[in-house]
Structure prediction request, 304 residues.
Amino acid sequence: MGSCGAVGSVRARYLVFFQYLGTDFNGVAAVRGNHRAVGVQNFLEEAAKRLNSVEPVRFTISSRTDAGVHALSNAAHLDIQRRPGRPPFSPEIVTKALNTHLKHPAIRVLKAFRVPNDFHARHAATSRTYLYRLATGCSGPNQLPVFEQNVCWSLQTEYLDIAAMQEAAQHLLGTHDFSAFQSAGSPVPHAVRTLRRVSVSPGPASLFVLPQESRRLQFWTLEFESQSFLYRQVRRMTAVLVAVGLGILAPTQVKVILESQDPLGKYQARVAPAHGLFLKSVLYDNFGKRGWDQKESFPKLGPH
Prediction:
């Protein structure tokens, strides 16, 4: 589980789950050399300095999220190399130390685990789930409670055809070339992905809605699960499904858009706002060549 770096010192790798409200950040990834923009990773690595690792601690993020996107549970691995003669930190100490020294209140470390030194937080993930929140019944942005304004997409409509959205979503299930839902700037060589699950359903009632507004405002939740997603794929699929719900598109047109593999089409080029999107969970159930009895040391499901 550990390897030697500097003479006599042991390097230990940890997997950490963490959450954040993305409103104040330029995405999860660290921003280097620009003091006006900052990522969640910048704050995590700044907090990790207090662990006094022989080598600087760098977080390898499992799932990249854009500016304004939130995470109920993201994950990353990091290496901590203590001075010779000192044993590795326990996962509990790592969690507590990071939370103690985090300098932004919108970030929280949920839990840490020791993992093998060849474990990779991005490559080892077997499932990622994103959640998108919608609100209807708002005649304008100022009709939404202030507590909800940065965590859902407020649609200026009283009605969404949820049945039509659910029908349209079925065309996205399975293994397809999702080029039509990929934004420019994606570094991946191909666009084939397998969407394992997609759902459109009423969301839980908001605690922040006043009683006199509760009949007018309705919240909806879209969820998407895959092993991995293309750049902005979820937000572009959401925008198309919302177009179906508004009657702008028919459910069968989603299949036509998907098969076109054209990311510049009139409807699929639209991107749902970042602030309605949450990374809900990143899951691991296989540690590759070395195999590892995660039943004892690592839960199948990441906290979320």
